[in-house]
Amino acid sequence: MCDCEEIDERDEDVIVSEILRFDEFSAFYSTERKPTKTEVPIKWIIKPSCKGFAAQGIDANGTDYIELRHNPKTREDAFLVAHEITHLIRKKIDKQYLNFSKVNDAILEKYTIDDMGEFASRLGSMFDDPIIDHFLKDKYGFNPEHHYTRVVIPDSIKNLNRGDARDELHRLNQAMFYAQYALQWDAIDNVGALRKWHNFKRLYQRQRPIAKRIGEDLYSMAKETGLDTLDKQKQLFNKIADKYSLNGIKLKDILYIE
Ligand SMILES: [Zn+2]
What we know:
The protein has helices spanning 12-16, 23-33, 75-92, 113-140, 144-160, 168-185, 191-207, 209-225, 230-243, and strands at residues 8-10, 43-46, 54-58, 64-68, 100-103, 245-246, 249-250, 255-257. The chain is of the alpha+beta class. It has two domains: 4-92, no CATH class; 100-257, no CATH class.
């Protein structure tokens, strides 16, 4: 959610003004975004304190927004903007979006509703981010590996020395992050980038053996079931929710999908 004093709303034309010079973004923008502008209204916000460069969400009035740390400039920024736009198009037009409808109150004795919201959105990213990045790479020629090697891996390494989380929820979150990366890296064929990913995996194994084991399991389940349609995502959610639990309660009795 946005902190009001920081909100700096901008016009979409201003947001894309510097990144339309990249061929892949300009092709993406004219094919995917221009025709969907009325159906998928987006509020654009510049928020310098954003945790990552870009994020999307829905505000208190039900308006979809994309918040960015600054006005996008580089090729990598363009990739991240395209990624967030694709999230909203999948949600609004393709209806390919796993919706979590409610949380069982029993879990709220141990975790807050915000914890569970974050957990659900982690799960959503694990399902959607790999699909979106594959699509952007295959159809428009974006290079997600630049972002993975320059930002994702270094940022993750900084946090790794804390080891496996003791708390179950936090550990599952770590495992989902890991599974998501593994699924995202499946689309990458650049040898130099892949070497960095393999080194990262080794380091991960040393620092977080439990999250790595669960993460590999989630990854295998995702590969087996597939992620590219909402039906497969639902099947995958059901398998995960039947296998994993929190505080002794199976996930299927905690989180419900629509
Ligand atoms: Zn995403």
